[in-house]
Task: inverse folding
């Protein structure tokens, strides 16, 4: 009995380690097929110019891959990446500590970036290029992250059943006139948590809770799991107004240019439209700071900005650069210029406010 | 290889050493398995060292009670419905003959290939505003007030039931074929009424089977994150995530995870208790008996019901997925085939390793039944109840701890364990050990000790007993275990998200990324691939269980 087991275990352990190794090798080469020249382990010795950059990204693959390829073409610096949710990546970086292979963390939502700074996994970036390209409100006060694209979280309404003159602010969506007419995405989504965090920053916790309670009282149906569904519900007539990120509207509009739903820019006489970012920072234990800085600077530059944002129908973070035409067609607006790190700092409070308001 | 040489050596001292090792090896190996399996629990339990009272009081005031009630409602609904569906459908196809029975008896297992999170987005996508159902209603001239809102406990329960009842059905069907039928018929000849024969004899006799099936169903339900988050239905898993993302409190997340584990431990204890002290011994092979023809009004209802379950659980979701794939064909990004290859490779590797570990456990139990061994075996299987994310983070923390310890000693800063496939495979093995162990243990349980003793008396040596008694009799269990683990690993999502490494994205990962954004149509391609590959082992399972 045990003879058989021992030999099986021994044999399988051997094959397994063999498999594991060869597969790892294979995975590595697969990964680098995105880069023109093959890296050899000796490449590290060829000086920093060739040293590959390792990116942990929660921004989706199809939104980053073409730009990394372009960057490699221009500079000869290879880039490899993995994509995952922000929280798992942050936990992973924290757990890997100084042994982490990562050089750059890229993620969406200021709350996530703020969280990364709190966990102590980023380092300050010293770059005049970034300082001049990216506005103050879209970067970390300690320069540990910089926004690269901007999305507005704004009001959408039914063109058939709503007169936009009746719309004013986020806060006013709690008014009597919207009773049974409002649709929202779940409070679990970080975009809503950041929005409410900014309300807390502006009005304080108590007032913010009153506003959110007003929203909940006006809900036409349970919160949806994503923005697209909110707009589908408005289109179907289940509700008349909602709050969504601009690029989700852009996707729907692309599919159906005749969609009877439109964007509204709220709070133009007060705080401005709530914006959020996707951004990047350099990891604390990066062994490749020089190249990593180059990549982030390149993404903030005039060459890359329009398409890097436009690919996902977002706004460039670089104020000098125009958005792509279909985004520009939505008109211009005044954005909230409170520093976005607040969105992260106040996020736990925002979640508690939403919990207490019964916003699921 | 060296091992083989050692084993062939006839040196007397080696022989003695082997005898001593033979006594100790099972315990040593079992302890190693136990240690590895409880390793992820250590960081989780250690989290109780830092409780955030303010956050707990917030949870208590807001959603903690709701989490308890939601969880209890869900497992009650899913448990009851899966039991009724699984048992009645198994009874129907084993006892009765009716047109289409041969299709249904394997068709009813197919929903096993569709994970709850796929069924969830298909159901919601179908009944969504702007979805196919609304268009259908519109064509009939009915407004959106006729559209059912599925986002309630019943909708969630329906998804879990349709996706998980096959566990009960599968185990129940083979149990009925083995002993249910013959005992039922004996009872009937002895004058029992149909109902009495069924409830007082068949159900208690097949208890190990349906209790085990039910335990699987409930654990899957408790550990699920994908489906409940698509429905926005708050359970402990969503609360764990929320503490993580929303409150930035890993400690509280780990503590909530421990509460969830408490729930599951109860399920495990209930299963132990539910099985009773029965030693399940096969009462001979199942006979090819003749089946009763199904007739009358109830017969028709039963038939239609079975077809309805098959349609809702499998046919319609697949049609919907195929429709979405076709309608959005030009939008799909390439690379889905690579994901498929990764998924299959990982699943095969994990299934083989899991089976090896499970056979160590079975062997140690068989070798000597002692209380500590029983406890270790039971506790080692708890990983199945841990939500994938929590397990993965536990593994990551633990492995990183070991890594940094190695780094200190060896003065080597490279990562040995925490990155790479090792961590992911470890997560799969810990998570699905229970599924691999179950079929193996039950087929071991069906080898009567007397059979082995007889072989011994007849002069069969150890080796001969292994190859001529154990292996042939264990083969069905081994195959079932392999296939079940394979399917489960393919479907696994949360742990894969955290622990995957360069170039090892899987179909489940892609499905998560797309469905989180509500892009049902784009999600359909990886989903249909997952279902297509998941069906192969399910069909093999079915073929295997044909008698």
Result:
């Amino acid at each position: 009995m045990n003879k058989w087991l021992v030999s099986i275990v021994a044999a399988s352990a051997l094959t397994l380690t063999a498999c594991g190794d060869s597969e790892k090798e294979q995975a590595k080469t697969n990964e680098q097929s995105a880069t023109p020249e093959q890296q050899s382990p000796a490449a590290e010795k060829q000086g920093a110019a060739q040293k590959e950059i390792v990116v942990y990204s929660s921004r989706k693959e199809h939104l980053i891959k073409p730009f990394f390829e372009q960057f490699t073409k221009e500079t000869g610096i290879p880039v490899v990446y993995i994509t995952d949710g922000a929280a798992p990546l942050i936990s992973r970086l924290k757990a890997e500590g100084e042994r982490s292979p990562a050089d750059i963390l890229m993620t969406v939502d200021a709350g996530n970036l703020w969280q990364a700074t709190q966990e102590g996994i980023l380092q300050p970036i010293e770059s005049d290029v970034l300082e001049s390209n990216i506005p103050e409100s879209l970067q970390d006060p300690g320069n540990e992250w910089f926004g690269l694209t901007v999305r507005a979280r704004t009001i959408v309404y039914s063109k058939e059943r709503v007169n936009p003159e009746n719309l004013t602010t986020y806060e006013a969506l709690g008014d009597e006139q919207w009773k049974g007419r409002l649709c929202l995405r779940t409070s679990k989504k970080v975009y809503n948590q950041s929005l409410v965090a900014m309300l807390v920053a502006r009005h304080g916790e108590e007032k913010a809770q009153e506003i959110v309670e007003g929203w909940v009282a006006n809900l036409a149906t349970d919160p949806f799991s994503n923005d697209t569904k909110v707009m589908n519900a408005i289109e179907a007539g289940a509700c008349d107004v909602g709050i969504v990120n601009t690029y989700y509207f852009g996707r729907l509009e692309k599919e159906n240019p005749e969609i009877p739903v439109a964007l509204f820019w709220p709070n133009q006489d007060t705080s401005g439209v709530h914006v959020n970012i996707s951004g990047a920072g350099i990891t604390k234990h990066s062994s490749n700071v020089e190249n990593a800085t180059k990549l982030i600077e390149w993404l903030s530059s005039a060459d890359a900005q329009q398409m890097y944002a436009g690919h996902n129908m977002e706004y460039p973070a670089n104020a000098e650069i125009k958005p792509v035409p279909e985004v520009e067609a939505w008109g211009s607006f005044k954005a909230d210029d409170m520093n976005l790190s607040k969105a992260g700092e106040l996020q736990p409070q925002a979640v508690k406010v939403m919990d207490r308001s019964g916003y699921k | 290889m060296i091992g083989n040489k050692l084993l062939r050596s006839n040196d007397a001292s080696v022989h003695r050493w082997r005898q001593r090792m033979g006594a100790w090896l099972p315990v040593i190996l079992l302890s190693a398995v136990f240690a590895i399996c409880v390793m992820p629990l250590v960081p989780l339990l250690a989290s109780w060292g830092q409780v955030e009272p303010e956050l707990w009081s917030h949870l208590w005031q807001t959603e903690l009670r709701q989490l308890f009630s939601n969880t209890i409602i869900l497992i009650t609904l899913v448990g009851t419905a899966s039991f009724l569906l699984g048992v009645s459908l198994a009874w129907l196809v084993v006892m009765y003959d009716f047109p289409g029975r041969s299709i249904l008896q394997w068709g009813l297992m197919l929903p096993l290939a569709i994970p709850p999170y796929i069924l969830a987005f298909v159901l919601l996508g179908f009944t969504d505003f702007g979805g196919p159902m609304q268009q259908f209603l519109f064509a009939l001239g009915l407004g959106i007030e006729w559209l059912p809102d599925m986002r309630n406990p019943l909708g969630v329960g329906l998804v879990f039931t349709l996706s998980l009842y096959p566990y009960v059905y599968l185990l129940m069907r083979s149990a009925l074929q083995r002993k249910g039928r013959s005992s039922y018929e004996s009872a009937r000849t002895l004058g029992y009424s149909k109902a009495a024969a069924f409830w007082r004899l068949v159900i208690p006799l097949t208890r190990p089977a349906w209790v085990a099936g039910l335990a699987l169903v409930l654990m899957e339900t408790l550990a699920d994150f994908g489906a409940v988050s698509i429905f926005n239905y708050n359970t402990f898993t969503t609360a764990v995530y929320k503490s993580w993302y929303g409150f930035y409190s890993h400690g509280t997340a780990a503590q909530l995870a421990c509460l969830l584990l408490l729930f599951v431990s109860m399920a495990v204890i209930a299963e132990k208790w539910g099985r009773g002290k029965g030693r399940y011994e096969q009462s001979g092979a199942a006979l090819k008996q003749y089946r009763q023809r199904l007739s009358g009004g109830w017969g028709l209802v039963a038939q239609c019901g079975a077809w309805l379950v098959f349609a809702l659980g499998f046919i319609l979701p697949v049609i919907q997925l195929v429709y979405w794939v076709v309608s959005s064909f030009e939008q799909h990004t390439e690379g889905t085939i690579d994901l498929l290859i990764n998924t299959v490779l990982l699943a095969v590797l994990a299934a083989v390793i899991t089976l090896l570990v499970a056979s160590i456990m079975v062997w140690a139990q068989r070798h000597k039944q002692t209380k500590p061994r029983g406890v270790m075996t039971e506790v080692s299987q708890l990983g199945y109840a841990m939500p994938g994310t929590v397990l993965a983070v536990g593994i990551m923390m633990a492995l990183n701890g070991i890594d940094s310890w190695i780094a200190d000693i060896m003065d080597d800063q490279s990562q040995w364990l925490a990155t790479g496939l090792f961590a992911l495979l470890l997560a799969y093995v810990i998570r699905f050990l229970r599924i691999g162990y179950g079929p193996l243990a039950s087929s071991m349980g069906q080898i009567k000790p007397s059979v082995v003793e007889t072989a011994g008396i007849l002069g069969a040596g150890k080796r001969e007993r292994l190859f001529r008694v154990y292996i042939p009799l264990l083969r069905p269990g081994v195959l079932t275990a392999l296939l079940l683990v394979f399917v489960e690993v393919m479907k696994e999502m949360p742990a894969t998200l955290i622990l995957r490494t360069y170039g090892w994205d899987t179909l489940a990962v892609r499905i998560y990324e797309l469905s989180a954004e509500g892009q049902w149509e784009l999600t359909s391609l990886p989903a249909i691939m997952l279902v297509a590959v998941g069906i192969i082992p399910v069909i093999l399972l079915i073929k295997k269980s044909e008698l």
